[in-house]
Amino acid sequence: MIKESNRTDTNTVYLFKVFVLIFLIAYLAFTLFPFYWMITTALKTKADAYRIPPQVWPYRPILDNFRELIQGKIFPLRYLLNSFIIGGGVIGVCLFAGVLAGYSLSRFQLRTKNHILVFILTFQMFPSVLLVIPIYMYYLRIGLLDTYIGLILVNSTLSLPFSVWLLKGFFDTIPVELEEAAAIDGCGRIRTLTKVILPLIGPGIVTVAVFAFLISWQEFVYGLTLASTESVRPVSPGISVNFLAMMSMKWEEMMTAVIALIIPVVILYVFLQRYVIAGLTAGAVKE
Amino acid sequence: MQKGRFLTDKQVAVILLLPVLIILGSVGVIPLVSALQMSLTKTSIISISQHKFVGLRNFMDILTNADYWQIVKNTFLITGIAAAIRLAIALGLALLLTGTIIKRGKNLFRSLFILPWLIPGVAMAIVWMWMLGTRVGIINYLLRSLHLIEANLPWLADKMLAKVSVITVFVWGGTPFIMIVLIAGLQTIPQDLIDASRIDGAGYWSRFLFIILPLLRSLMAIAVLLSLIYMFQNFVIIYTLTGGGPGIATETFSLYVYKTAFDIGRIGRACAIGTTWLMFLLVFAIFYLRSLTGGGKKA
Fold first, then answer.
1. Which of A67, A125, A116, A280 is nearest to B117 (CA)?
2. Those residues with Cβ within 8 angstroms of residue A257's Cβ, 6 or more apart along the chain or in another chain
3. Cα of B276 to nearest chain A Cα, Å
4. What is the mean pLDDT of each successive set of 10 residues along chain B, which is 299 residues long?
5. Cβ neighbours of B267 in A, within 8 Å
6. A80 in B contact zone (CB under 8 Å)
7. Which of B130, B254, B270 is nearest residue A133 as measured by Cβ atoms?
8. Do A189 and B12 lie within an 8 Å CB cutoff?
């Protein structure tokens, strides 16, 4: 009896494994092909890029497009600078406000603690496209339109809820006794915070910083509407403004621009992979 | 120590919360209330500080507009299908990457599969727009070479295909996130449970149905919900890929609000549309919070 079912079992298992392999390879190809196509297009000459039928492999790869990128001929390099500045600002804001708020929510027994947490979480659901309308009007009136500060503030709202939530979780893992011991040793609250606790939540801080930067790097709506000139416009909406406004699409240039957009993110990921995944899972799986 | 305190504990707690509350309040809550207020007015982008109160007129205009309902349908259709496909694929991948069928290279696969998540929406949309081009796009070329299609398909110019294209990009970009979440969840399933079921003679399929699925349920719900919420509000991908077109075939709430406010210039109306949008999101919010506080670990 057992032998027979084993035999049909092995057959179905084999078939299943083949199916699984096909699924895996197919999805891997689907996932990676756009990257391949992006890179090979950027390496093509203008003529080769739109050849019909398309060249699957670049026969005459050139680096001209990248040279033009560095010379700023493809899009203003200022866009990249702006994104870095805004990203840095957002990191600063999220860490400052996040650490304070996370600490407060973790340590102090406020009656409304849960309400605040809920408020912070539902906040992520406010659509920026809707909020940008009054924000645009307001910024216009008080002169924050087209400024770094204006953009840093709105971008912070996208990462703050997560930052507070994550940091609170980290603070929760540090026993209160540690602070009491530090207090006995003579540390005031602030010294305790900086010298004792912060080092312990190092990973949390890095995760928050990485996320804050990534999210502001990708941000589009606020950057599109609240930055009216090149001087402050970040790179994501910048590429859209520069290219999609044109009638003729210069695809080899656009692919180069896209690569420029992606490289900082990929570099960040390669070095800080642990934190990115840790942050992602922390966002969903509660301990 | 208590007596010499300048501020009470409670006061300190509130002060520490102030930065967050001020920022979220001024750039989040106040604009939201403003938007709600403006939905009751007739405001034009040209004379931006003049609001003429019109009550519920905007809402009546919108709700009797056929375009509006088409856009509601679009939003739910695109978002729903994309979320379902994402979940299915991500579940499959997560099971494979935490299971026993694949022996080696799990970490490599995981790192590769996560790549699309890092890509900014603009980049994603531009690359796919290039690949889906009717005459110069590589996708049509590949499909024809494999004899899967006869002639070039207008991926971005046909009403139905445009929706497929948008869904494809959403799936491509968003599946990694769900995959990672599910992997994390799968890794928390105690191994002894799985081993015990093996000893009891349970096949892979029943193990999946009766042990893994129930334990993953709340996690899947949260992942899908987050997915839905994200796509429900996403602007950049559809804006870049199709601009809402052809016509309004791929237009969702986010584009509708944007265009009404900044292209047409009817701000009051745009805010009204946005308010109805928020109603829908509110429903999602309730579900989200329910699964966060109610779900958790139920063995």
1. A280
2. A69, A74, A75, A239, A242, A243
3. 11
4. 62 86 90 91 78 86 92 94 94 85 80 89 93 88 86 90 95 93 83 74 69 80 86 92 89 94 90 92 79 52
5. 133, 137
6. no
7. B270
8. yes
Burial of B205 (C-beta count, 10 Å sphere; 0-12/13-18/19+): exposed
Distance CA B289, CA B281 (A): 12
The rounded distance, in Å, linking the Cα atoms of B56 and A225 is 27
Considering only the beta carbons, identify the residue of B27, B131, B219 that sits closest to A37: B131
- Is B16 part of any domain? no
Instruction: Classify domain A74-282 by CATH number.
Output: 1.10.3720.10
Q: Which range of residues forms the domain containing residue B76?
A: 57-294
Of A31, A105, A225, Cβ closest to residue B115: A31
Could you give the CA distance from residue B291 to residue B217 in angstroms, rounded to a whole number? 10
| A135–B31 CB contact, under 8 Å | yes
A71 token code pair: 């010379």
Position B180 in a domain: yes
Give first-to-last CA distance, chain A, whole Å.
46
Q: Give the pLDDT confidence of A52-87 residue by residue, as tens digits.
A: 777 777 777 788 888 888 888 778 889 999 999 999
Q: What is the ipTM of this complex?
A: 0.85
CATH number, domain with residue B289: 1.10.3720.10
| Beta-bridge partners for B51 | B43
What is the residue extent of each domain of chain A?
Answer: 2-69, 74-282
Q: Look at residue B41 in the predicted model and tell me its pLDDT.
A: 86
How far apart are the CA of A152 and the nearest CA of chain B, in angstroms? Answer: 11
* B28, B101, B127 ranked by CB distance to A38: nearest: B127
pTM of the predicted structure, to 2 decimals:
0.86
